[in-house]
């Protein structure tokens, strides 16, 4: 197959967990494009495609290489304009940038506080060494000491989704009546949490959970097939 998406995995390849890779997976399905997903551990990413990137997702589409989930979405939108739109116009691109900022500055830190050790434990021994060294350099302390009160982090998580919950009073998806790339940005963050820990840690009656369940069911349940 000429279209390949390089994605991140831990020791168990049946549980890809990267939020950014999930954005790209959902974007490709949204466009109705066939692709092969090649799963890589952290330490093997620099060995593919001539070492063009140290991070994934990385998309090869024929002779074109595109890295970064948002850049992949923009590329797909431009290259396949007759497939369903990921943005619904320039305003949708701008909205998605805002949602990306919200997700990465609010949701991602909250997920990290809950799932840091779960993610570490998903990795093979070589990747555990890499993960520990790189994350401890960022956090300035041992992984085990970075977020000592996991229960408190879980209790605080529901509040991080207040903007999503507020929006769901008016429409079923961030994109409106149907999902757009902005939905896949937030979905990727919650899927990261779900795959790493086994739960998104939201109350059963939470509208944000209902939205996430709808996203899991998209594209014949591609998100639900991993857990």
TrEMBL record:
Signal peptide (from-to): none
Residue span(s) of domain GST N-terminal: 8-84
GO MF, any single term: transferase activity
Keyword entries, A-Z: Transferase
Record-linked InterPro entries: Glutathione-S-Trfase_C_sf, Glutathione_S-Trfase_N, GST_UstS-like_C, Thioredoxin-like_sf
Gene3D superfamilies assigned to the protein according to its UniProt record, in alphabetical order: 1.20.1050.10, Glutaredoxin
Pfam families (alphabetical): GST_C_7, GST_N_2
PROSITE patterns per record: GST_NTER
Protein name: Glutathione S-transferase family protein
């Amino acid at each position: 197959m000429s279209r390949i998406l390089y994605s991140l995995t831990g020791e168990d390849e049946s549980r890809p967990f990267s939020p950014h890779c999930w954005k790209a997976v959902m974007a490709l399905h949204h466009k109705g494009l066939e692709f092969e997903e090649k799963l890589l551990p952290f330490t093997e990413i620099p060995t593919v495609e001539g070492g063009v990137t140290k991070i994934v997702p990385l998309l090869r589409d024929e002779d074109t290489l595109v890295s970064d989930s948002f850049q992949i979405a923009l590329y797909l939108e431009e290259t396949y304009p007759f497939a369903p739109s990921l943005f619904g116009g320039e305003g949708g691109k701008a909205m998605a940038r805002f949602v990306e900022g919200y997700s990465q500055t609010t949701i991602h830190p909250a997920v990290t506080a809950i799932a840091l050790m779960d993610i570490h434990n998903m990795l093979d021994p070589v990747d555990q060494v890499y993960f520990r060294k790189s994350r401890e350099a960022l956090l300035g302390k041992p992984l085990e000491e970075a977020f000592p009160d996991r229960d408190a982090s879980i209790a605080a998580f529901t509040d991080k989704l207040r903007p999503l919950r507020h929006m769901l009073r008016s429409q079923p998806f961030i994109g409106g009546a149907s999902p757009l790339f902005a939905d896949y940005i937030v979905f990727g963050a919650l899927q990261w949490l779900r795959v790493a820990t086994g739960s998104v840690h939201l109350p059963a009656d939470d509208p944000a959970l209902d939205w996430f369940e709808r996203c899991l069911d998209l594209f014949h349940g591609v998100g639900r097939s991993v857990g």
